[in-house]
Amino acid sequence: MASTTLYHLDQRVSIAGKGVGTIAFIGKTEFAYGEWIGVILDEPKGKNNGTVQKKDGTLVRYFTCNDNHGLYVRPGQIESVIIDFQSNLTRSSSNHSIKSEGSTGSIPPPSTSTITKTSAVPTKQRGLRAPAPGTTTKLPGSDGDIDQT
């Protein structure tokens, strides 16, 4: 039996038959015995929006997401953990936006460094001429003719 200690909030996981999502809740619930993991799915393949109705009819919200994006699973139902190589990014479980840590959310101003413009067209060299087709050219330091055709 898998333990909830293997998982943490904002961790990306794959749920068999449901797809990929982000862990938004870990712990005990009022709707069933034991440890549960609330996942916000990337696609609407879930059963709720993070809210579950208790037996007495009252609603309990464990996390917030769009309708049909919420799913509660036992730890053993998690198929795999998805490694995120961009460790400097954090995921907000309330709105699925990705923010850079320490970011104000704005785009940085353009760089003010000076870039020297150069021409992509080579300058014309003077005094050099291509040999006419069918001619033979003798290069300095060579003993014979070299065919330039």
UniProtKB/TrEMBL annotation:
Pfam family, one: CAP_GLY
Region feature (Disordered): 92-149
SMART domains: CAP_GLY (SM01052)
InterPro entries attached to this UniProt entry: CAP-Gly_dom_sf (IPR036859), CAP-Gly_domain (IPR000938)
Bias (Low complexity): 102-119
PROSITE patterns cross-referenced by the UniProt entry: CAP_GLY_2
This protein's name: CAP-Gly domain-containing protein
Organism: Rotaria sordida
